[in-house]
# Entry
Amino acid sequence: YWQGLVTNFANPKAGVFAVSFLPQFVPQGAPVLPTLLAFSVIWAVIDLLWYLPLIWLAGRVRGVLQRRSIQRRMEQISGAVLVGLGLRLAIES
# Structure
């Protein structure tokens, strides 16, 4: 958990995106800083509402996904998808 949290805070992409994306939605004449803070809070709440069910689902399927047979099958499927995408790219180029 802590490693993911530190990685997330050390990654400037989300901040750069917010600084470049959110200001266009500040109404003309509105106070910029409070409006951007409100947008940030709304964004955080929406993220929380989106990720909580995903976290719950991941916890439920964790046991299944840790089985070696399932991991091997997922590796085979993802490998086949990558080979297929590579072939498609080679054919179209």
In short: The chain has one domain: 2-22+30-92.
